[in-house]
Structures are given as structure tokens and as C-alpha cells.
Amino acid sequence: MKTRTLVVVAWGLLAGACSEDPGTGTSGTGGSGGMGGGGSGGMATGGSGGSGGMATGGSGGMGGGGSGGMATGGSGGMGGSGGMGTGGSGGMGGGAGGMGGTSSASSGAQICIPGTPKSCYDGPGGTEGVGTCLGGMSTCLPDGSGFGPCEGEVLPATDDCKTAADEDCNGANAACPGSTSWSRRFGSNLMNQTEEKLGGLAVDAGGNVLIAGHYLSTMDFDGGLGLGDGGSARDGFVAKLDSTGQPIWARKIAALNNLYMRGACVDPQGNVVVVGETNGDGINAGGGLKVGTGSVQTFVVSYDPAGNHRFSLVSNGSGSAYAKAVACGADGSIALVGYFTGNLTFGGNQIISNGSDAFVVKFSGDGQQIFTKRYGDASFQAATGAAFDTQGRVVISGYNDNTIDFGVATLAKGFFVARLSATGEHLASRSFPGDATSSSNLLVRVSAGPDDTLVLATDSGDTPIVVDLGVAGPQNGTFFMVKLDGSTTPVWGRVFSGAGGLKGVTFGNNGDVVVTGALRGSVDFGSGTAQTTTGSSDIVVASYSAADGAFRWSRVEGDFDAKSMPQWGEAVGVNAAGQIYVGGSFEGAIHWGDQELVASFGHVGLYSSDVFVASLAP
Fold it and tell me: Region entry Disordered: which residue ranges (predicted)?
């Protein structure tokens, strides 16, 4: 036992002797000696010196451990184990000394090595390296407590649609409002003079686009969906396109005499409804020949979402009945409007005109007549716009050449709008005095918004008129827009001066109103700069704030070959995301920015019209 004791003491003395301060290497103060040794690395581990003091090994361990590991307090831990001390406090003291060694290395734990760089990026996951977004570099702080700011990184920002860069780093460049996503041409692929014209366009809940019109000769769609030659008579077409403009199906409505398509709508279930008129002898839309009476007969045809024929209706009467517009309600109901002479019925109650009177017929979703109404005097009246509001009420708009009475008060000559109950009772009506030239081509379109507000847009001819929209007194112009609140009170209006007109209007899904039509001269649509046609008639598309009518943007697309050929927008719709779909007809060639569309014989300047559909950013 004495021999072992001497060995231990000798080892403690040896540890003290190897420290930088040997004078403090006594067994009683071995800890201090350890601090000296620790500063220079102790013997490899200053901690072993801590075991030198039997009585005060704890203190020695503190010293040895404290400076033991050159820069690593961990080596000091060995000093703690050196305390064999016979006293509880001594041995424990040695252990505590090891802990002291750790704290003596620095004032806090280091996270990184000072000055060390590393890559960094503070943007959302999946955006680094996409578009303009880049990672940066961050450097460890001098005290090693962490990294500094990420320098040189580029984070997502608002995408500027006017640059080619992807500033929001979503993998796609932002589209400027009104810019072209795609455009398509549909018509005859035969090199002969033909006539294909759009009569209606609607967008279903899935974002598919429904188009309807009439054609002479053949009607071709991409993917082999062609419709046969109707001979010398105009036949009708109905086609469903997906959201990229690719045809899904196409159907022919055959007529023994000329047929003209005037409108299309789609209900929430995806059922398609189209309307028009034919010059007698009936139609066949896929359910067999349907024949009515009268010199001109109005028809209603419905297809299911897959293009299967649901029903066909043809009017009966003693005179002529012209369809002008159709609307589909949330419950599948259908509202058909137009004008007629003589008498008119669709199998229910018969109405009799005083002259050329406006009519509205409401059908159930399966084609059953609910009510039929006529409005007018011995002069000319026509209903040319239809809509359903969110409460299922029917809204009609049109032109009155003398007086018109919806059941409450007689309205003077001008443009009118009326709101009817679900059973056809008068709820509200208003006239906008204006002396437009009476014409079967005069249009007053209407769209109902999500809050039951209304917007009217007109194609009232190229002759200037004075119209009072109820917001700024009488104004001189050729065509106009006006927004009405839920009680049919005017909110804002716009009167345009110059040759042109608006044929389609819809509320968008981004707080906007979108219109399309034709420009036949020079018109300022709100930008402060007049836009001028390049041909006899150009397509116009414009967007305004639904809240106050403020101008947002407008586009005019005309004859790309400068051969003075006509083009015009006929109808417009939007999908749930606000994407705009505009359709119409054109002769010659047009270019929406993605590709040139050329009608039959378009490059040689012969008159032959085709149908176009274009998708525009909201």
C-alpha cells in the first residue's frame, strides 16, 4: 500500500513539474498548477495534473481541467477523474474541476468556426434557382455564435408582366392583363368562299368553352371533328372546347332552309343550350326533324355535357319570330328573348303582337314552358339581352322605338332593362332615353353580377345619338355601357364616341367587367388615346372596374394583312379563375400575338368568313 501511495504522489508531482508554472504544482494546490499546464497543453491533457492533491484533488482538477485542453475544455475532464481523493468533497471537487475546464475555453458554446462561409436562401421552398431567385452566402460571426445575413440572395418579388423574367419564381412569366394565352380558328378547310359565323359563346364550371354558330359549306375542327356540307343552306354548329381550345365534340344542327345561331349558354350541370331562327321547314339537331309554323321560326336546342341531344323546341306562329339571346339559370332554367310579329307559342300560352314586339319565354331545364310574355306597342320593340340573377329572377334588355309597358309604368323611347320574378311578374324596369335608329341589328346586351348588379352594353349603330344614362345627364355618343345596382339604379356609365359597338358583355371574376365588339373607326375606350381600325371593322376587347367603371385595358385586333377585311367580336365569357374567352368572326387574317389566323381565301382578300376563339389573361 505504501508503494502505491508513493506512486500516486510521484505522478502528481510529475504532472506539476510538466506544467508551465511548476511552482504551483503542490498537492494542496495542484489545481492552480493545472491551470498553468493547461495553458500550454498540460502534458497532453492538463486534466491528469488534477489528481495530484489527495486532500484537495478537487481544486487541482479544477485547475487542470480549466486550462487543460488547449482550447478544448473537454480534455480538462480528465483532470476531474484524477481526484482519487479520500474525502467526498475532494473527489467531487476534482470532477467539478473538469466542468470548469470547459467553461474556461470561452464565454459560450461555439456554433460555427469564425469566418467560415456557407450557402443560404431565405425564400420559400422550391423557389431557389427558379426564375430570378438565387441563393447567397452567409459567414460565421467572429465569436462563432452564428451566421451573419445571407448576402447576394435574390428572393421572389412581384412578377412584372412587361419583362421576360420570372420575378416571382413560380416557373412561369406573368401574363399582362389582356395578353393572349392562345387563339384558334374554325371554319372550312376548302379553298372556296364560305361563311362561318359565331352566334354564341359560354364557359362551363369546368373551364370548357362552348361555341355555337352557323356555316355554309363545311365546318372543320381540329382532331378530325368536321361537320358535313349543308349544301346551299346555312346549318348550325355547336362545339365544346377544353380550356386550351382543343375540340372535345362538335354537333351539327341541320336546316332545310337557312339557319342563324343567336346565342348559347350552359347550366351548372354542364348542359348546353343554343338558340336561333330558321326560315321555315324545321331543324334536325340529332333528335329527329322538328318543324314549327311561321315564316321565321325560333328554335331552342339542348345537349348534355357529352354532346348527346336532350331536346329541341321550335316555335309556332302566324308571323316571324327572331331569337336574340339566351340565358341559363342556376336551377337549369332557360330564358329566351327576341322579337316577333303575329302570334307566337312554344306549346304553352300564346302571345299576340301589336307590331314588332319584344318577347321573353322561360323554360324549365327539361324544356317545359313556364311563362311567355310580350312587351310593346305598334312600333318596333326587341329584347336582345337575357340574364338570371342570383335569386333566379329573369333580366331582359333591349330597345323600344316608341313606348313600352312592363306592367307598372309606360317607358319612353330608348334602351330598356327589366327585372322579372321567377314567374314572370314585373319587379323593376328602367329606360335610358336615346333616339337610336330602329334596326333589327341593334343590340342591348346584359350581364348579371354576383351581387345582382347589372351591366348593359350596346351596339346601337354608327350614327351619334344623345342618351341619358342617369349618372351624368344627356351625353352624345354612338354606343354605351351602364352599371345598375340591385334596385336597377344607375351606378356608373360610359358613352363612347366613334363608329363601333359592343356585342358581348360579362362580369369577370376579378372585380371587372369585360366587353367585346367591333370598332369601325377611331374610339377612345378609356385610356386617353383613341384606337383606330386597320380595316373596315376590327375586334375590340376591353376591361373596366365593376365598382366604378374605371378603365383597365383594351385591345383592338384587326386585319393582319391590311386588306381592309372585317373582323368583329361577338361574345365573351370568363372561367372561375377570371380567364377571358372571346369569340367572333373574321375575314382575311388576324394575329392575336401567338399565331396568325387566316380565313379561307384570307390572304388574297376574297370575302370568306371563319370563326375565331381567343383566350386572354384577366
Answer: 18-86
